[in-house]
Amino acid sequence: MPPARQLAGLLVQPFSVLDEGDAAVVSRVEQDDTARTVTGLARRFTALMRAAGKGKTVADDQDAARGHRRLDHAGADL
Residues annotated as region Disordered (predicted)? Predict the structure, then answer.
């Protein structure tokens, strides 16, 4: 198993870009249901951040802005 920081980096990468060894490590971690759920969410979040682009704000992206507003409303219920 790689060090924690390296593993965290692997877990947020799209599976398609991992080499065979890294893919095997990720597959091993994802045998646990909770880990699989968390890594899936982390990948989705990372992909969203990458799609937003460097220097682009949430307000610049209408889809992201709508999601941000939904999160604001959801937080109000807590």
Answer: 56-78
pLDDT at 74: 53
Burial (Cβ within 10 Å: 0-12, 13-18, ≥19) of residue 39: buried
Q: What is the per-residue burial (b if ≥16 Cβ within 10 Å, else e) of 44-66?
A: eeeeeeeeeeeeeeeeebeebee
Q: What are the domain boundaries of the chain?
A: 4-76
- pTM to 2 decimal places: 0.61
Coil, helix or strand for 31? coil
Q: Considering only CA atoms, which of 15, 5, 66, 75 is closest in space to residue 40?
A: 15
